[in-house]
Amino acid sequence: MKRTDDGNKTVSSRTTINKALRLNLDEKKYGTIAEIGAGQEVARQFFLAGAAAGTIAKTMSAYDMQFSDAIYGTQEGGRYVSKARVKAMLDKEFSLVLERVGTSRSRSSRFFSYAATVSAKSFNRDNECHSWCGIRIQMYPGAEPSDILVHVRMREKSAEQQQDTLGILGVNLIYAAFYYFEDARKIIDSLSDGLNPEAIEIDSIEFRGPYFEDLDNRAMNLHLIRSWKTRAIMFEPDGHIAIPAEMLYKRNVLTIRGSFRPVTRLNVDMIEQGFAAFSQQEGVEASNSIVLAEISLNDHFGKDLMVPEEDLLARVSLLNALGYSVMVSDYTRYFSLRAYFRQFTALQIGIVLGMANVKEIFDEDKYIGVEGGMLEGFGKLFPDNTRLFIYPELNDQKEVADYTSVEIPSNVRYLYQHLLENQFITGIDCSDPELLKVYSREVLSLLSKGGGDWEQNVPEEAVAVIKANRLFGYRG
Protein backbone atom coordinates (compact mmCIF):
# COMPACT_ATOMS: atom_id res chain seq x y z
CA MET A 1 0.00 0.00 0.00
CA LYS A 2 1.14 3.55 -0.61
CA ARG A 3 0.76 6.07 2.20
CA THR A 4 0.12 9.77 2.41
CA ASP A 5 2.39 11.99 4.50
CA ASP A 6 0.13 11.63 7.53
CA GLY A 7 0.44 7.85 7.41
CA ASN A 8 -3.05 7.12 6.10
CA LYS A 9 -3.44 4.30 3.61
CA THR A 10 -4.22 5.06 0.01
CA VAL A 11 -4.64 2.64 -2.88
CA SER A 12 -2.16 -0.17 -3.52
CA SER A 13 0.76 0.72 -5.77
CA ARG A 14 0.09 0.19 -9.45
CA THR A 15 3.21 -1.95 -9.73
CA THR A 16 1.84 -4.43 -7.20
CA ILE A 17 -1.70 -4.39 -8.60
CA ASN A 18 -0.45 -4.85 -12.14
CA LYS A 19 1.66 -7.83 -11.13
CA ALA A 20 -1.21 -9.43 -9.26
CA LEU A 21 -3.62 -8.79 -12.14
CA ARG A 22 -1.27 -10.32 -14.73
CA LEU A 23 -1.07 -13.47 -12.60
CA ASN A 24 -4.83 -13.52 -12.06
CA LEU A 25 -5.52 -13.32 -15.79
CA ASP A 26 -3.20 -16.24 -16.58
CA GLU A 27 -5.30 -19.36 -16.05
CA LYS A 28 -2.21 -21.58 -16.30
CA LYS A 29 -0.85 -20.33 -12.95
CA TYR A 30 -2.80 -21.66 -10.00
CA GLY A 31 -2.15 -22.27 -6.32
CA THR A 32 -2.64 -21.40 -2.66
CA ILE A 33 -1.53 -18.70 -0.25
CA ALA A 34 -1.04 -19.42 3.45
CA GLU A 35 -0.01 -16.60 5.81
CA ILE A 36 0.54 -16.84 9.55
CA GLY A 37 1.14 -13.91 11.87
CA ALA A 38 0.43 -10.72 9.92
CA GLY A 39 -2.98 -10.91 8.32
CA GLN A 40 -3.57 -12.07 4.77
CA GLU A 41 -2.04 -9.16 2.93
CA VAL A 42 -0.53 -11.13 0.05
CA ALA A 43 -3.88 -12.72 -0.77
CA ARG A 44 -5.53 -9.34 -0.34
CA GLN A 45 -3.42 -7.84 -3.13
CA PHE A 46 -4.70 -10.48 -5.53
CA PHE A 47 -8.31 -9.83 -4.52
CA LEU A 48 -7.83 -6.06 -4.92
CA ALA A 49 -6.47 -6.60 -8.42
CA GLY A 50 -9.60 -8.52 -9.47
CA ALA A 51 -10.15 -11.87 -11.18
CA ALA A 52 -8.40 -13.62 -8.27
CA ALA A 53 -10.35 -16.83 -8.87
CA GLY A 54 -8.12 -17.38 -11.88
CA THR A 55 -5.05 -17.75 -9.67
CA ILE A 56 -6.04 -18.59 -6.11
CA ALA A 57 -7.47 -21.96 -5.13
CA LYS A 58 -7.36 -21.22 -1.40
CA THR A 59 -6.12 -18.68 1.12
CA MET A 60 -5.75 -19.39 4.79
CA SER A 61 -4.28 -18.24 8.10
CA ALA A 62 -3.91 -20.06 11.41
CA TYR A 63 -3.10 -17.77 14.34
CA ASP A 64 -3.81 -20.09 17.22
CA MET A 65 -0.73 -22.21 17.94
CA GLN A 66 -2.71 -25.39 18.49
CA PHE A 67 -4.54 -24.96 15.21
CA SER A 68 -1.27 -24.20 13.43
CA ASP A 69 0.45 -27.24 14.94
CA ALA A 70 -2.49 -29.43 14.03
CA ILE A 71 -2.12 -28.38 10.39
CA TYR A 72 1.66 -28.23 9.97
CA GLY A 73 3.03 -30.26 12.88
CA THR A 74 5.69 -29.10 15.31
CA GLN A 75 9.25 -28.41 14.24
CA GLU A 76 12.49 -28.90 16.13
CA GLY A 77 12.97 -26.07 18.59
CA GLY A 78 9.26 -25.26 18.59
CA ARG A 79 9.74 -21.97 16.75
CA TYR A 80 6.86 -20.70 14.67
CA VAL A 81 8.80 -18.13 12.66
CA SER A 82 11.51 -20.35 11.23
CA LYS A 83 12.73 -21.92 8.02
CA ALA A 84 11.53 -25.30 9.26
CA ARG A 85 7.99 -23.97 9.73
CA VAL A 86 7.74 -22.32 6.32
CA LYS A 87 9.06 -25.50 4.69
CA ALA A 88 6.42 -27.54 6.53
CA MET A 89 3.78 -25.11 5.28
CA LEU A 90 4.98 -25.48 1.70
CA ASP A 91 5.10 -29.27 1.99
CA LYS A 92 1.53 -29.40 3.22
CA GLU A 93 -0.05 -26.80 0.96
CA PHE A 94 1.62 -27.83 -2.28
CA SER A 95 0.73 -31.48 -1.78
CA LEU A 96 -2.89 -30.43 -1.26
CA VAL A 97 -2.86 -28.42 -4.49
CA LEU A 98 -1.73 -31.44 -6.49
CA GLU A 99 -4.06 -33.78 -4.65
CA ARG A 100 -7.17 -31.67 -5.11
CA VAL A 101 -6.80 -29.93 -8.48
CA GLY A 102 -3.74 -31.49 -10.08
CA THR A 103 -5.76 -33.63 -12.47
CA SER A 104 -8.85 -31.47 -12.91
CA ARG A 105 -7.19 -28.41 -14.39
CA SER A 106 -5.50 -27.92 -17.73
CA ARG A 107 -2.38 -30.00 -18.38
CA SER A 108 -0.59 -26.75 -19.14
CA SER A 109 -1.09 -25.53 -15.55
CA ARG A 110 1.88 -24.60 -13.38
CA PHE A 111 0.96 -25.02 -9.73
CA PHE A 112 2.35 -23.12 -6.75
CA SER A 113 2.00 -22.58 -3.03
CA TYR A 114 3.10 -19.43 -1.24
CA ALA A 115 3.66 -19.49 2.53
CA ALA A 116 4.74 -16.97 5.13
CA THR A 117 5.19 -17.17 8.88
CA VAL A 118 5.60 -13.78 10.53
CA SER A 119 6.39 -12.10 13.81
CA ALA A 120 5.08 -8.57 13.24
CA LYS A 121 5.20 -5.63 15.65
CA SER A 122 3.46 -6.66 18.86
CA PHE A 123 0.95 -4.41 20.56
CA ASN A 124 2.52 -4.70 24.01
CA ARG A 125 6.15 -5.74 23.63
CA ASP A 126 9.35 -4.92 21.79
CA ASN A 127 9.73 -8.12 19.77
CA GLU A 128 11.94 -9.07 16.86
CA CYS A 129 10.01 -8.30 13.67
CA HIS A 130 10.84 -10.78 10.96
CA SER A 131 9.40 -13.31 8.56
CA TRP A 132 10.22 -16.48 6.70
CA CYS A 133 8.37 -16.62 3.41
CA GLY A 134 8.67 -18.83 0.39
CA ILE A 135 7.14 -20.26 -2.73
CA ARG A 136 7.05 -23.79 -4.09
CA ILE A 137 6.47 -23.71 -7.82
CA GLN A 138 6.48 -25.82 -10.96
CA MET A 139 8.76 -24.12 -13.47
CA TYR A 140 6.93 -25.90 -16.29
CA PRO A 141 3.78 -28.05 -16.40
CA GLY A 142 4.21 -31.37 -14.62
CA ALA A 143 7.70 -30.51 -13.35
CA GLU A 144 9.02 -31.48 -9.96
CA PRO A 145 8.68 -28.29 -7.89
CA SER A 146 11.44 -25.93 -6.83
CA ASP A 147 11.51 -23.54 -3.85
CA ILE A 148 12.60 -20.01 -3.14
CA LEU A 149 12.89 -19.23 0.59
CA VAL A 150 13.49 -15.73 1.93
CA HIS A 151 14.21 -14.35 5.41
CA VAL A 152 13.06 -10.77 5.96
CA ARG A 153 13.61 -8.32 8.80
CA MET A 154 10.92 -5.64 9.04
CA ARG A 155 12.04 -2.15 10.00
CA GLU A 156 8.77 -0.19 10.00
CA LYS A 157 7.38 0.91 13.34
CA SER A 158 3.80 -0.35 13.20
CA ALA A 159 2.23 -3.74 12.58
CA GLU A 160 -0.04 -2.20 9.94
CA GLN A 161 2.87 -0.86 7.93
CA GLN A 162 4.69 -4.19 8.22
CA GLN A 163 1.62 -6.08 7.02
CA ASP A 164 1.28 -3.81 4.00
CA THR A 165 4.95 -4.27 3.16
CA LEU A 166 4.79 -8.05 3.44
CA GLY A 167 1.78 -8.05 1.13
CA ILE A 168 3.77 -6.28 -1.58
CA LEU A 169 6.85 -8.46 -0.99
CA GLY A 170 4.75 -11.61 -1.35
CA VAL A 171 3.31 -10.50 -4.68
CA ASN A 172 6.83 -9.64 -5.85
CA LEU A 173 8.10 -13.10 -4.92
CA ILE A 174 5.26 -14.98 -6.59
CA TYR A 175 5.53 -12.84 -9.72
CA ALA A 176 9.31 -13.18 -9.91
CA ALA A 177 9.16 -16.96 -9.47
CA PHE A 178 6.84 -17.24 -12.49
CA TYR A 179 8.32 -14.63 -14.81
CA TYR A 180 11.98 -14.25 -13.83
CA PHE A 181 12.87 -17.83 -12.90
CA GLU A 182 15.59 -18.02 -15.55
CA ASP A 183 17.52 -15.17 -13.89
CA ALA A 184 17.97 -15.56 -10.11
CA ARG A 185 19.56 -12.14 -9.78
CA LYS A 186 16.57 -10.52 -11.42
CA ILE A 187 14.35 -12.33 -8.91
CA ILE A 188 16.38 -10.79 -6.09
CA ASP A 189 16.41 -7.33 -7.65
CA SER A 190 12.62 -7.33 -8.07
CA LEU A 191 11.75 -8.29 -4.48
CA SER A 192 11.69 -4.66 -3.34
CA ASP A 193 9.64 -3.32 -6.25
CA GLY A 194 7.14 -0.79 -4.93
CA LEU A 195 8.71 -0.75 -1.46
CA ASN A 196 10.55 1.85 0.57
CA PRO A 197 14.14 0.51 0.60
CA GLU A 198 14.28 1.17 4.34
CA ALA A 199 11.16 -0.88 5.09
CA ILE A 200 12.78 -4.33 4.97
CA GLU A 201 16.09 -6.13 5.00
CA ILE A 202 16.43 -9.43 3.18
CA ASP A 203 19.39 -11.15 4.81
CA SER A 204 18.98 -14.67 3.41
CA ILE A 205 17.65 -16.28 0.25
CA GLU A 206 17.75 -19.92 -0.72
CA PHE A 207 16.96 -21.50 -4.08
CA ARG A 208 16.13 -25.20 -3.80
CA GLY A 209 14.97 -27.99 -6.05
CA PRO A 210 15.72 -29.45 -9.48
CA TYR A 211 15.47 -26.21 -11.44
CA PHE A 212 18.03 -24.46 -9.26
CA GLU A 213 20.38 -27.40 -8.64
CA ASP A 214 23.26 -25.73 -10.51
CA LEU A 215 22.83 -22.41 -8.70
CA ASP A 216 25.33 -21.42 -6.00
CA ASN A 217 23.25 -20.04 -3.13
CA ARG A 218 26.35 -18.42 -1.62
CA ALA A 219 26.76 -16.24 -4.71
CA MET A 220 23.07 -15.38 -4.72
CA ASN A 221 23.29 -14.22 -1.13
CA LEU A 222 26.28 -12.03 -1.95
CA HIS A 223 24.06 -10.42 -4.58
CA LEU A 224 21.70 -9.41 -1.77
CA ILE A 225 24.40 -6.99 -0.61
CA ARG A 226 25.10 -5.53 -4.03
CA SER A 227 21.40 -5.14 -4.76
CA TRP A 228 20.99 -3.18 -1.51
CA LYS A 229 18.74 -5.75 0.14
CA THR A 230 21.09 -6.12 3.13
CA ARG A 231 24.42 -4.86 4.44
CA ALA A 232 25.93 -8.20 5.39
CA ILE A 233 25.74 -11.94 4.75
CA MET A 234 27.00 -14.56 7.18
CA PHE A 235 28.33 -18.04 6.51
CA GLU A 236 28.43 -20.94 8.95
CA PRO A 237 31.72 -22.88 9.15
CA ASP A 238 30.12 -25.54 6.91
CA GLY A 239 29.48 -22.89 4.23
CA HIS A 240 25.73 -22.62 4.72
CA ILE A 241 24.11 -19.19 4.93
CA ALA A 242 23.36 -18.09 8.49
CA ILE A 243 20.70 -15.73 9.79
CA PRO A 244 22.59 -12.99 11.69
CA ALA A 245 19.99 -12.70 14.45
CA GLU A 246 20.27 -16.44 15.10
CA MET A 247 24.05 -16.62 14.85
CA LEU A 248 24.76 -13.64 17.12
CA TYR A 249 21.89 -13.75 19.62
CA LYS A 250 23.19 -13.59 23.20
CA ARG A 251 26.76 -14.23 22.08
CA ASN A 252 30.01 -12.37 22.55
CA VAL A 253 31.41 -11.42 19.14
CA LEU A 254 35.06 -11.20 18.15
CA THR A 255 35.74 -10.12 14.59
CA ILE A 256 38.78 -9.56 12.42
CA ARG A 257 38.66 -7.78 9.08
CA GLY A 258 40.98 -8.81 6.30
CA SER A 259 41.29 -9.56 2.61
CA PHE A 260 42.17 -13.21 3.40
CA ARG A 261 43.39 -13.54 -0.18
CA PRO A 262 44.51 -16.08 0.80
CA VAL A 263 44.18 -16.60 4.55
CA THR A 264 47.65 -16.96 6.08
CA ARG A 265 49.18 -18.29 9.27
CA LEU A 266 49.50 -14.65 10.34
CA ASN A 267 45.72 -14.22 10.07
CA VAL A 268 45.17 -17.35 12.14
CA ASP A 269 47.58 -16.16 14.82
CA MET A 270 45.80 -12.80 15.00
CA ILE A 271 42.50 -14.60 15.54
CA GLU A 272 43.88 -16.99 18.14
CA GLN A 273 45.79 -14.34 20.06
CA GLY A 274 42.82 -12.00 19.83
CA PHE A 275 40.46 -14.57 21.29
CA ALA A 276 42.92 -15.39 24.06
CA ALA A 277 42.76 -11.73 25.12
CA PHE A 278 39.02 -11.45 24.46
CA SER A 279 38.32 -14.43 26.70
CA GLN A 280 39.75 -12.46 29.63
CA GLN A 281 36.76 -10.12 29.45
CA GLU A 282 33.88 -10.66 31.84
CA GLY A 283 31.44 -13.31 30.70
CA VAL A 284 33.41 -14.39 27.63
CA GLU A 285 33.75 -18.14 27.15
CA ALA A 286 34.17 -20.30 24.07
CA SER A 287 30.67 -21.72 24.57
CA ASN A 288 28.91 -18.32 24.39
CA SER A 289 31.15 -16.56 21.86
CA ILE A 290 31.67 -16.49 18.14
CA VAL A 291 34.68 -15.54 16.06
CA LEU A 292 33.88 -13.93 12.71
CA ALA A 293 36.32 -13.36 9.87
CA GLU A 294 34.90 -10.32 8.07
CA ILE A 295 35.52 -9.32 4.46
CA SER A 296 34.40 -5.88 3.29
CA LEU A 297 33.37 -5.33 -0.31
CA ASN A 298 34.52 -1.71 -0.07
CA ASP A 299 37.76 0.22 -0.11
CA HIS A 300 38.72 2.75 2.58
CA PHE A 301 36.48 5.37 0.97
CA GLY A 302 33.34 3.23 0.86
CA LYS A 303 33.55 2.43 -2.86
CA ASP A 304 32.73 -1.12 -3.98
CA LEU A 305 35.94 -2.77 -5.15
CA MET A 306 33.83 -4.87 -7.54
CA VAL A 307 35.57 -8.08 -6.53
CA PRO A 308 33.98 -10.97 -8.46
CA GLU A 309 31.73 -13.28 -6.46
CA GLU A 310 33.90 -16.24 -7.43
CA ASP A 311 36.92 -14.59 -5.79
CA LEU A 312 34.99 -13.76 -2.62
CA LEU A 313 33.64 -17.29 -2.35
CA ALA A 314 37.15 -18.70 -2.70
CA ARG A 315 38.18 -16.74 0.39
CA VAL A 316 35.05 -17.84 2.25
CA SER A 317 35.84 -21.47 1.39
CA LEU A 318 39.37 -21.19 2.80
CA LEU A 319 38.15 -19.65 6.06
CA ASN A 320 35.41 -22.27 6.34
CA ALA A 321 38.03 -24.99 5.83
CA LEU A 322 39.73 -23.67 8.98
CA GLY A 323 36.46 -23.86 10.91
CA TYR A 324 35.67 -20.14 10.95
CA SER A 325 32.37 -18.38 10.48
CA VAL A 326 32.58 -15.64 7.85
CA MET A 327 30.82 -12.33 7.31
CA VAL A 328 30.86 -10.42 4.01
CA SER A 329 29.64 -6.84 4.30
CA ASP A 330 29.68 -3.45 2.64
CA TYR A 331 30.70 -1.68 5.84
CA THR A 332 33.68 0.63 5.61
CA ARG A 333 34.09 2.09 9.09
CA TYR A 334 34.53 0.00 12.21
CA PHE A 335 31.92 1.92 14.19
CA SER A 336 29.31 0.90 11.62
CA LEU A 337 30.42 -2.71 11.96
CA ARG A 338 30.04 -2.50 15.74
CA ALA A 339 26.57 -0.98 15.38
CA TYR A 340 25.57 -3.87 13.14
CA PHE A 341 26.58 -6.43 15.77
CA ARG A 342 24.85 -4.47 18.53
CA GLN A 343 21.49 -5.02 16.81
CA PHE A 344 21.70 -8.68 17.79
CA THR A 345 23.66 -8.92 21.03
CA ALA A 346 24.17 -6.87 24.17
CA LEU A 347 27.28 -8.82 25.18
CA GLN A 348 30.96 -8.12 24.58
CA ILE A 349 32.24 -7.06 21.15
CA GLY A 350 35.92 -7.30 20.25
CA ILE A 351 37.69 -6.21 17.07
CA VAL A 352 41.16 -7.49 16.19
CA LEU A 353 43.26 -4.96 14.28
CA GLY A 354 46.71 -4.55 12.84
CA MET A 355 48.76 -1.46 13.60
CA ALA A 356 47.99 0.02 10.17
CA ASN A 357 44.26 -0.19 10.94
CA VAL A 358 44.76 1.79 14.16
CA LYS A 359 46.44 4.57 12.22
CA GLU A 360 43.45 4.70 9.88
CA ILE A 361 41.01 4.96 12.78
CA PHE A 362 42.91 8.02 14.05
CA ASP A 363 43.11 9.60 10.58
CA GLU A 364 40.66 12.51 10.43
CA ASP A 365 40.41 12.22 6.65
CA LYS A 366 38.65 8.88 7.11
CA TYR A 367 35.69 10.67 8.75
CA ILE A 368 34.73 12.86 5.82
CA GLY A 369 30.94 12.78 5.59
CA VAL A 370 30.48 11.96 9.28
CA GLU A 371 28.72 14.99 10.77
CA GLY A 372 30.54 14.87 14.10
CA GLY A 373 33.84 13.82 12.55
CA MET A 374 36.26 11.67 14.48
CA LEU A 375 34.61 12.31 17.86
CA GLU A 376 31.27 11.03 16.58
CA GLY A 377 33.04 8.00 15.15
CA PHE A 378 34.69 7.17 18.46
CA GLY A 379 31.47 7.77 20.34
CA LYS A 380 29.81 5.15 18.16
CA LEU A 381 32.74 2.74 18.36
CA PHE A 382 33.14 2.65 22.15
CA PRO A 383 29.73 3.21 23.78
CA ASP A 384 29.52 -0.10 25.64
CA ASN A 385 31.37 -3.40 25.99
CA THR A 386 33.51 -2.83 22.90
CA ARG A 387 37.28 -3.19 22.73
CA LEU A 388 40.03 -3.17 20.14
CA PHE A 389 42.81 -5.76 20.29
CA ILE A 390 45.96 -4.62 18.48
CA TYR A 391 48.39 -7.08 16.91
CA PRO A 392 52.06 -6.02 16.58
CA GLU A 393 54.05 -5.42 13.41
CA LEU A 394 57.66 -5.06 12.28
CA ASN A 395 58.91 -1.47 12.16
CA ASP A 396 61.36 -0.04 9.64
CA GLN A 397 64.23 -1.44 11.68
CA LYS A 398 62.64 -4.93 11.46
CA GLU A 399 61.94 -4.87 15.18
CA VAL A 400 58.65 -5.90 16.78
CA ALA A 401 56.53 -2.80 17.49
CA ASP A 402 53.41 -3.02 19.60
CA TYR A 403 50.33 -0.86 20.18
CA THR A 404 52.19 1.52 22.50
CA SER A 405 54.38 2.70 19.61
CA VAL A 406 51.63 3.59 17.10
CA GLU A 407 52.31 6.98 15.53
CA ILE A 408 49.22 9.00 16.42
CA PRO A 409 48.72 12.62 15.21
CA SER A 410 49.57 15.04 17.99
CA ASN A 411 46.08 16.59 18.13
CA VAL A 412 44.46 13.26 19.07
CA ARG A 413 47.31 11.74 21.08
CA TYR A 414 45.53 12.33 24.39
CA LEU A 415 42.41 10.64 23.04
CA TYR A 416 44.49 7.58 22.25
CA GLN A 417 46.00 7.68 25.73
CA HIS A 418 42.51 7.90 27.26
CA LEU A 419 41.41 4.80 25.37
CA LEU A 420 44.54 2.92 26.46
CA GLU A 421 44.18 3.81 30.13
CA ASN A 422 40.53 2.79 30.16
CA GLN A 423 41.34 -0.47 28.34
CA PHE A 424 39.20 0.24 25.32
CA ILE A 425 42.36 -0.50 23.35
CA THR A 426 44.80 -3.18 24.38
CA GLY A 427 47.63 -5.08 22.77
CA ILE A 428 47.88 -8.76 21.96
CA ASP A 429 50.94 -10.90 21.41
CA CYS A 430 52.38 -12.55 18.35
CA SER A 431 53.18 -16.21 18.97
CA ASP A 432 56.10 -16.19 16.53
CA PRO A 433 57.83 -13.00 15.28
CA GLU A 434 58.56 -14.76 11.99
CA LEU A 435 54.84 -14.55 11.22
CA LEU A 436 55.14 -10.77 11.02
CA LYS A 437 57.04 -11.27 7.76
CA VAL A 438 54.05 -13.00 6.12
CA TYR A 439 52.04 -10.90 3.66
CA SER A 440 49.03 -12.17 1.72
CA ARG A 441 50.04 -10.28 -1.41
CA GLU A 442 53.43 -12.02 -1.49
CA VAL A 443 51.85 -15.43 -0.91
CA LEU A 444 49.39 -14.71 -3.71
CA SER A 445 52.18 -13.76 -6.08
CA LEU A 446 54.14 -16.94 -5.35
CA LEU A 447 51.26 -19.38 -5.69
CA SER A 448 50.17 -17.85 -8.99
CA LYS A 449 53.71 -18.21 -10.34
CA GLY A 450 53.84 -21.86 -9.35
CA GLY A 451 56.95 -21.64 -7.23
CA GLY A 452 58.38 -20.49 -3.94
CA ASP A 453 57.65 -21.71 -0.44
CA TRP A 454 54.20 -20.15 -0.06
CA GLU A 455 52.74 -23.34 1.44
CA GLN A 456 54.57 -22.86 4.74
CA ASN A 457 52.89 -19.48 5.22
CA VAL A 458 49.36 -20.81 4.67
CA PRO A 459 47.48 -23.18 7.02
CA GLU A 460 47.64 -26.78 5.83
CA GLU A 461 43.87 -27.08 5.38
CA ALA A 462 43.81 -23.94 3.23
CA VAL A 463 46.74 -25.17 1.11
CA ALA A 464 44.79 -28.32 0.30
CA VAL A 465 41.72 -26.34 -0.80
CA ILE A 466 43.81 -23.95 -2.94
CA LYS A 467 45.50 -26.81 -4.75
CA ALA A 468 42.40 -28.95 -5.16
CA ASN A 469 40.37 -26.08 -6.62
CA ARG A 470 43.25 -24.17 -8.23
CA LEU A 471 42.21 -20.97 -6.50
CA PHE A 472 43.71 -17.53 -7.10
CA GLY A 473 45.44 -18.67 -10.28
CA TYR A 474 47.38 -21.45 -8.55
CA ARG A 475 49.83 -23.17 -10.84
CA GLY A 476 51.08 -26.49 -9.51
Describe what you observe in this structure:
- By secondary structure, the protein is of the alpha/beta class.
- It has helices spanning 14-24, 41-49, 65-72, 83-101, 159-179, 184-190, 217-226, 244-248, 265-278, 309-321, 334-342, 355-361, 373-381, 413-421, 440-449, 460-469, and strands at residues 29-36, 56-60, 110-119, 130-137, 146-154, 200-208, 232-235, 241-242, 252-257, 289-296, 325-329, 349-354, 386-391, 393-394, 400-401, 425-427.
- The protein is built from 16 helices and 16 strands.
- The strands form three sheets. The protein has an eight-stranded mixed sheet with strand order 8-7-11-10-9-12-13-16, with helices on both faces.
- Helix 1 packs across helix 5 and helix 11 runs parallel beside helix 13.
- The radius of gyration is 25 Å and the shape is elongated.
How are the elements arranged and paired?
Blueprint: H1 14-24, E1 29-36, H2 41-49, E2 56-60, H3 65-72, H4 83-101, E3 110-119, E4 130-137, E5 146-154, H5 159-179, H6 184-190, E6 200-208, H7 217-226, E7 232-235, E8 241-242, H8 244-248, E9 252-257, H9 265-278, E10 289-296, H10 309-321, E11 325-329, H11 334-342, E12 349-354, H12 355-361, H13 373-381, E13 386-391, E14 393-394, E15 400-401, H14 413-421, E16 425-427, H15 440-449, H16 460-469
Parallel strand pairs: 1-2, 1-3, 9-10, 9-12, 10-11, 12-13, 13-16
Antiparallel strand pairs: 3-4, 4-5, 5-6, 7-8, 7-11, 14-15
Give a brief outline of the structure.
By secondary structure, this protein is an alpha/beta fold. It has helices at residues 14-24, 41-49, 65-72, 83-101, 159-179, 184-190, 217-226, 244-248, 265-278, 309-321, 334-342, 355-361, 373-381, 413-421, 440-449, 460-469; strands at 29-36, 56-60, 110-119, 130-137, 146-154, 200-208, 232-235, 241-242, 252-257, 289-296, 325-329, 349-354, 386-391, 393-394, 400-401, 425-427.
